[in-house]
Every structure is written in structure tokens, then in C-alpha cells.
What does this fold into?
Amino acid sequence: MAIRKSKGTTPTERLLADLCERSFLKLWSYPNPFKEDGDELCDLLAVFENHVFIFFDREGRQLDKPDKDPMVNWERWKRKVIDDQVRTAHGAERYIKGGRGIFLDNQLKVPFPININVDNMIVHKIIIAHGAKEACERFSDDNVYGSLAISYGNVDSMPSSPFPFLIHLDKDKPVHVFDSHNVPIIFNELDTFFDFSSYLDAKIDAINSFDGLVYCGEEDLLGHYFSNFDDSKKCHIIGPREKKFSLVAIGEGEWKSFINLDIYKNKKLADKESYLWDELIQKTCQNTLDGTLLGNDSPLRGESAIHEMAKEPRFSRRALSAHMMQSIRDFPETGTPMMRNLSFMPSFYKGTGYIFLQIKIEGITDYDGEYRQIRRNMLEIACGAAKNKYQYLKKIIGIAIDAPKFTDTNSEDFILMDCEDWPDDLRAQYEEANKVMGFFNSSTLTLHEKKVKEFPDIEKSPPMSFGNERIGRNHKCPCGSGKKYKKCCLK
It folds into this structure.
């Protein structure tokens, strides 16, 4: 059954919905959900695993009157855009925690399609504030982008701000406030579930660890976060590693300085290849929303290959995509009627691995009815053979396609094999099935090890080629996208 999502009711809501559509939240985000009384719960609700993201999008034009007292205008804007939404966000959190019904329509006929476990959920309350950027830039030449300054602390002991464009928020009931300038930055730089939630978690940890956290713009806090890596915890953090300080203040211009560093530019170049992974996810998510996804996968319930793929962080997607692209390049060019190429790739998450299977079969007459069933059976056997070889695996995600070297169109099959429990009869079953296929035959295996850095040193890649034939800029890209090479993986 197709799922019809709202696109947002205002221009800024539509912008927010579009940002979510293009990020990791495509299948898991829904604009304008409704409560049991028919009123809107929030402007957008996204749920992935046990994380619940509650978005409120508000625009105020009170600051468009530069001839008026700026403090009066500011207080009016802040009351409508920030203060009222903070209270509403807390109310939405209470409503969800109460386990009450959520719907996609105001007739209450279409339930919210994702189950929310209120016992272990992590709630992120996010306000997107519009209408202050130009006024903020007019107020101070020192403001680089016109972003709102944010301060978290004990609201009872916070002094009143003597100037506008600084928002005081309660550290005991934290709400995130993004603005017109930095919300696209946040979504573009943190466009996977792992990266987005890790940033918000680090921010909450800093808010809880220090008496006060102050920064001149959300983008400046993000620049600090990217520059501040804790080797002992293997993650980015906000503030000093030692928690003995009482106040952390992030100055103006942190983001502007960071994006001019070579490490940032190198990362953006390296990340381009990773979007092959996103393309696979987005395509299958759209099929789910359209009601055209075949099989018994349940992406909305978390029981699917696509759900597991969507968990991968950006730098991991880069390595996975690079391996897939290399496998596509290396597919044998022979006249043999049937050929295959199998790759095993580790996930960022321990105990999880990926099988990537390419197949070339000539003389196919019944593609959907016969051939794809053969391909699915081969993929299942390959996943079972991988478990027999790598006993540490608890989950295996299988991806099968037609070898892009030999086709202008393609399709994908996915398998999620939950193999934490692997009794002897299953082991024997896949050992027997694999006798014909010979997957993971030690005589044909080659091992490649590669260290992946989130902020890498860029090396020049060799020209993409099939065998000895160099791929021209106007040839179709071998990644299978159907686009010209210069507009796809070369861009």
C-alpha cells in the first residue's frame, strides 16, 4: 500500500521536508502529523530505531521593521518563534511518551506508519527559526552569517540579555534551535542517521556536563565538533575532554575557518563516491512509499536490509561504495554466457557484513519471473556461505545486481539474514547448497584491506576503465546509475 506524505504547508515547512527527503530521513520522516484531537502534533516527525526527532518550523516577520526599537521587535519575534515553540515541543514530547495515537491525516484514518517504543526512546526536540537573519546581520558587522547565538544554562540564574539575537535555553530541558542559515548546513554535513544523531548526542552530553554552553551559531558549534576528536572514545566531542570546566564558549567564525581547511575539502571530495550507497537506499525507500516494493522486507519496522544500510555513517558508506565500484570495474570481460562476481564487505557495526553479488546471464527470456528468482537464490546461498566462513557475523545484508558492464538497465535484490542463532542444521543446509556455487572457495579468494579516515588525505584516482578501455566522460557510468560518467562518479 502506498504511503502519502504531506509536503509541508508553508514554504519553510516544504524546505524542511525536502531536506529530510534528501537525507537519511526519507522513509522515516513525515510532515504535519496529527494528534487524536485532530490538531497537528508538530511540523515534522521522524523516527529511526529508538530516536525520535520532533521538528517545529516557524517564521516571524517582526524584525523586518528596522525603524522600530530593535529590542521590542526582537522580544516579539522571540516570543512567537522561539518561546511558544519550546513550550509546544515539550508538550509534543509528553504526548508521544504517553503512547497516544499519531496520524498522517486530520481525519485520523491513516496511522503513523512507524511503531514508537516509548520505554527506550531518545527524543530530540528541534526548532527551525526563520526571519532573523537579515536583522541579525544589520545589528552587528561581527556576525559572519546572521546566525542566532545560543546559550544553555540554568534559566533561573541566567541574566537577561542586554542585546538581541542571543537565545537562552534551559539545560535541564534542552531544545535544539537551528536557523535559516545553518539548517541546510546541518542537514548537508550530517546527512546520515549516525552522523546526525551522534552530533546531537555529543551536544546533549556537553549541555549536561558543563554549567553553561554558549556559541555564536549552530554552524560554529558544528565546526568545533568536527575539529574536536576524542581518541579514547573514538568519537567527536564538544568541549574539553576534562569535565572540570564550568563554561564552554565557542567563538564566532569557527565554521568559516573550518571549511577553509584542506581536511574539510578533502572530505567533501572523498564523500562524492559514497552517494552510490545513498542512491540504493533512496530508490528502495521510494519504492516502499509507492507501495511497489516486492518481497517480505519491512523497512518501516527495522527488519530490512535497507534499514541496516541506512545506519552506516558517511565515511563507512564511502568505503562500501568504493569497494562496490571497484568490483564493478573488475568484473571479468569474457564471452562466457554466465559469469558472477562476489564481494564481502564489513560494516561499521561489529557482527554485520555485506555481500555484493553481480551476475551476467545471457539469453534471459523471463527476467522477473524466472531470472530474478535464480538471482535471489544465489544471493541467499552466498549469505549463508559467508556465515559459515565468518562465524562472528550476526547479520548479513545481501545486495545483488546485474553486472553493469553488460547492461544499460538494472534492478536490485536485497536480503537481510539474521544469523546470530546458527544451528547445525542451517550450517549443513548452506554447506550443501554451496557445493554447486562454490562461494568463498579459498582458491579464488583475494583479500583487500583498507583503512578509512573520516577526514582523508586525497590521492589521485586512476582513470575508470573496463579492462584496457578507458571510460570517456560521455559514456554511461559503470556504477549502474544510467547517467553519463562526467555527471555521475566523475563530478
